[in-house]
Every structure is written in structure tokens, then in C-alpha cells.
Amino acid sequence: MSNIIELKNVNKWFDKFQVLKEINLEVKPKEKIVVCGPSGSGKSTLIRCINRLEEHQEGSIVVDGNEISENTKNIEKIRAEVGMVFQQFNLFPHLSILDNCTLAPTWVKKLPKKKAIELAMENLKRVQIEDQAIKFPGQLSGGQQQRAAIARALCMEPKIMLFDEPTSALDPEMIKEVLDVMVDLAKGGMTMIVVTHEMGFAKEVADNMIFMDEGRIVERAKTNDFFENPKSDRTKLFLSQIL
Amino acid sequence: MNLNILKPNKENISIYLVMGVGLLSVGFIDILSNTFFNFNITRIFPEIISYLSPLLLGVFGLHFIRIEYSGNKTLDIINKNLNSSNFNAILSLIVVFILIKYLPLLLKWAFFDANFLGNTKEDCTGDGACWVFVKVWFNRFMYGMYPNAEQWRINFSFLLLLTSIGSIFVFPNKFKKYIILFLLFIFPLIALNLISGGLFGLKLIKTGSWGGLSLTFIVSAFALIFCFPIGVFLALGRRSDLPAIKYSSIGFIELWRGVPLITVLFMSAVMFPMFLPDGTYMDKLMRVIIAITLFEAAYMAEVVRGGLQALPRGQYDAAKSLGMGYWRMHFLIILPQALKLVIPGIANTFLALVKDTPLIFVVGLLELAGMIGLAKTNPEWLGMATEGYVFAAFVFWVICFAMSRYSQNLERKLSTER
User: Fold this and answer.
1) Judging by DSSP bridges, how do beta strands A5-14 and A58-63 pair with one another?
2) Mean pLDDT along residues B164-190
3) Which of A27, A141, A194, B73 qualifies as a FRET site for A96, CA 20 to 30 Å off?
4) What pTM was estimated for this model as a whole?
5) What is the ipTM for the molecules in this complex?
6) Angstroms from A105 CA to nearest CA on chain B
7) Which SS3 state, helix, strand or coil, does residue B145 take?
8) In A, what residues contact B, Cβ < 8 A?
């Protein structure tokens, strides 16, 4: 099977500070990858590069057959195929939950309004907040907001979903409801790259684990191998601290 | 009985109340007798004490009744709002005393001793204001030199404006869009052609004879409609990644913000025609409206930019990650939120714009304040400046207050954060 995401020798600098060093990564369709590592290791930057919320300076990133670079004219088209969920939810506070979900499908994919609403309700049902559809984001709990954000991303019917620490801003009680939705999504066959510290979730759904430190991918392994016998000392140290 | 006059307490509340209210009453009687009967009951004291006596009596009185949790609701409300400390007590007293001393004078001048009847200056016999002046000149204050027989055209235009604005609230949301489009694009054309005439057998009326409050409205309305979108685009331009757009926006904004409006108006009237090719002509009023529009747009741009900067980066990220391009992101996500944040600033700029319109007198256009300035120099009506400008102030205040209330209303209606 051909790769849906391919990163080759990606380097990125913030001014003089190199945040990504020689990143190579292939993701196959329907593969689930969990990225972990200490803060500042470049995990978020890595997945933000995949839909060009950050620009990389060297190397190539190919998403679904399209090279992402400065010359990419149809970057919006690629982004429409890559859903993203953020740590801070980033729902649009001036729109109701339903409008949050229908806005992009109607304006970007030109879906008829009625279809978009049907699709939105379907996805809100999937994340179990269909009863909150007419409320505004500010009226929802953190867990509900994050689930709404997942539904909003799903409404674009993306091929790939990127999760940038989706549970880090949540109360412990609400983490589970969000993780449940993500597990359900994974079982549905979505291609997922998840940056998270939730190792329980990683063990349950991930096919492959990636450990990053100081801008490099230190270790990439099958989930079982990663937890049972990590190769590098840095990974061992990290795992001993968080498990 | 333990009576500590420095620390009024609840146990002896009735004694403190009697003392406090008594002192307050003496203070008030003093100032009232001073104001209305010209009789100073404290004149036995030295002048400075006599002058300050109402204040001193009042402060001691308020001190005695400042009892926390007294159990008396009225007393608690008074203490909380007017009398929470000695300093606040003094401020409360000063405000009340100023009102007692000067409000009656103002009312006497404006109403009780004022003259409303008659047609000439000689009919004003009282000591108060001569509102006859405003009455006689009212037509000119409203329409300037616009011929009386044609004034229905102005009236009709404003009626049309008011009804279409009113219909926004009456008709369902579906039609809202069309009414707003009509107001923005078709109405200005209709109004302009109707008021200036020259088409459909309407008599042509040169802009030189437009004036009064209607001119205030015309200048403000056109400037308001156009300065807003220009300001928004300038704000976006200033934050653009493209250097050409960015630096020309910055240049434009800083140039117009750095020049006084009165200079801009002079330039538009005197210098601008020199740059036009021979034979081309641009109406003076048009030039003035364009000048004011661009001037206020520069201010609007900075207000809007403030809103844009207040939005978290996550909103841009989220919009981009859903596949929205620059324009969709800004018009669907960023601007609705940013503009909502800066409604007070926008209202501020709009109010300033309306109040800046009298400056067009420097190019010979006379709106409300300008017409009053003209009328007060009429030999038959000399000495009426106060009445005229009080009237102008009142009219401007009503307009601006209405706009301010509307903006507050809008803020409440649009708030979804709670």
C-alpha cells in the first residue's frame, strides 16, 4: 500500500533555533500513529507542518500525493482533506455548535445547506453531543467543546486526522469522554496522527509509536515493542518517568 | 450608655440618626436659603467657615449615619452608594450642592424666563433664552439655503431612509440582506439624485445651497458608509504578508492620521483642483465627503486592527485547517469576531465623525452649526449666539446619544460568550 503521508529529510528553524531535524516519516492509509516526547521536542510543530500551519524550510512533505511547499497553490484543498483538532479546541465562539460544523462544508466544499446540516447532526451524534447543537461554544464544558471540535473536523470528511494534544487542556474527568470518541474514530478506520501523553490510549489504538526529543525522531516502533523493550536510553528514561 | 461619636454603632442607632439627619438638614437649609432667599444663616461666622458650612455640616451628618449593617434597608443603600467613606461623602455633597445651586438657574434661563412666542428679536422681553431665534430660523437650520418649495425632496429621502432601516427590524431575516444591499448601494444613488436634482424634470439645486442639519446628515451618512469598509481593508492591508500592500497601507494610515482634519479640508477645496486636468471639475461637497471619508477611514483602520490583534492565533489555525482561504477566513471567522470586539471603538470613531462635520465651514459649506454661525451675524438677530449654540449642542447630543445607545444595544445582542 502506498503512503498517504511522506516526510523526507524535513528541517525547520524558528529563526536560528532548529525545531525539526532530519525528520523522515511514512504513514500508510488507516494507520494510527501516536507521537510522544517531552515538551519542546517538536511534536506539535511536526504535525502542524503536515497541513502547513507551519512552514518547513528543507526537505519534502507529501500528503495524499501532493507535495506541500511554498508553491502549493491548492494548499486549501489539501487542508480540507486533513482534519485537525487542537489543544485549545479553537471553536468559533461567535457561531453555534451546528454553525461551527456546517460553515466549512458549505463555504469550502460547497455542500447544500440541508446536506451540511444532516452531515453535521450525524457527526454530532457520533460524538454524542447532538443535543448541544444550538448552543454556543461558551455554554459547553471543555470535554463537550473538544468533542464538538472533533465533529467539526469530521464534517469535512477528511482522509487524515491530526490531533495536537487534544486532552491536555481538559479536566481529568473529561479526558475519558474525548478519548472514547477518538478510540471509536480509530476503530472506524481513520488515518490518525495523535500527539498525546495518554499512554493508555496509545496502547489501545496505536499501530506505531514515535518518540521525539530535541527535534529528532529518536525511536519509531510497533506499539508493543515500544513499551516492552524500547531501544534507546532516552526512550527508556522518558517511559520510566511517565508510566 | 457608651456613646463614641467617632465610631457610630448599631446599638445607639436612633441617637446617631437624629444627630446625623439633623446636621444634614441644617446644611441643606443653609444652602437652600442661600440660593433661593438670598439669606445666609451662618453669616455670624468668619467668611470662609460660612462659605463651607453646608459642606462641613453635611460631612459630620453623613459621618454619624454611616453605620454598617444597620438593618435599615434605605440607610444601607444610601451608605453603600453615596456615603461609603468621608471622601465619597464630600463628593456626594458637592455634586448635590452644585445641582441645587445651578440647576434652577439653568431651568430658569432655558424655560421659565424664556421667550417662545413672537417673530422678531423685539418679542424677547424676558431675562431668559430667546427661543424665538431658533423658531424663526428653524427652516434654515434644517435645510440651509435649499429652496423652500423643493424641501420635500430632502424630507422624502430621509423618510425613505428611516422606513428602510425600520423595515430591517420588521421583515424576516431572509429579506434583511436585500434591504441592507439597497441601503448601501441603491439608496445613496436615489437620495443623491433626488436631492441634487437635474434628472426627471427636477430642478437642479447646486450643492452650495445645501446646508443645515440635512447637510450634516448627508455628509455623515456618506462618510460613515464608505469609511467603514475602507478602514477594514486598510486594517487587513496593514497586517498583510505582502510588503507592497502592507507598506502602502501603513503609509496611507500614518499620512492621514498625522494631518489635522481642517488642513485636509482646505487641501481638498483649494489644492486638489490644481492637480485635476483642465476642464475637469469635481463638486466641492463631493471632495469634502471624500476627504472626511479617507480621514476617518485611517482611524477606523487602527480601531479594527486592534480587534484583529486581540483574536487568539488558534482562530486563524482552526479556519485554515478547515481549508478556508484568506478571504473566507477573514469574512467568516476573523472579522465577525474582531469587529464585535471593537464596537465601542467603532462607535467612538462614528461619533467623532458626526461631530467633525461642522468643520466643513472652512470650505464654505454650512451645516447646522455653520448655519447658526451665519444666523447669529444677521443684524436683526445679533446677540443670539448662546441660544443658537445651545440648540446645536442639543441636536448633536441627541444624535450622538442615539448612536451610542444603538452601539450598546448591538454589543448586548451580539454577545455569545456567556
Assistant:
1) antiparallel
2) 82
3) A194
4) 0.83
5) 0.92
6) 9
7) coil
8) 48, 51, 53, 76-77, 79-84, 86, 88, 90-94, 103-104, 107-109, 136, 138, 149, 152-153, 156
